[in-house]
Specification:
YjgF/YER057c/UK114; RutC-like_sf; globular; RidA family protein; two-stranded antiparallel sheet; alpha+beta; 2 helices; four-stranded mixed beta sheet
Length: 130
């Protein structure tokens, strides 16, 4: 991809209520990547009990899967976040900022009654471009 992603928050719409961009423009010369949802399983193949630990592991797993394709968080276009319990936004935003800095991808967040396995509290799927 010769051009960079462009992230915008038009002044005509209200400011984002979280750490995301309303619009992410993908250059026409980019290759799109769709990544399956990542969960908080650690390198020991165990799923932690707490949402905080699952958030930490989930974001780490996203960084690893991006790196496996020679990518990093700056190339994430869109994130869909699914959670079964209320997210501690102070904790989440700290981890999110560490990963993305101040260049946030577009985002959708939903609270759901269950995910793929009973103990999963959060799942994040991403789209990226390079």
């Amino acid at each position: 991809m010769k051009s960079k992603l462009v992230r915008k928050n038009p002044i005509e719409v209200p400011n984002p209520v979280g750490k995301y961009s309303h619009i992410t423009i993908i250059p026409k010369d980019a290759t799109m990547y769709a990544f399956s949802g990542q969960i908080g399983v650690g390198h020991d193949d165990q799923l932690p009990k707490t949402l905080h630990e699952q958030i930490t592991n989930t974001l780490k797993n996203i960084e690893i899967i991006l790196a496996s394709e020679g990518m990093d968080a700056t190339q994430v276009v869109k994130a869909n976040i699914w959670a079964t319990e209320e997210i501690d936004w102070d904790y989440f935003d700290h981890k999110w900022d560490t990963m993305f800095g101040d260049s946030y991808p577009s985002m959708t967040i939903a609270y759901v009654s269950a995910l793929g396995l009973p103990d999963i509290k959060i799942e994040i799927d991403i789209w990226a471009a390079k």
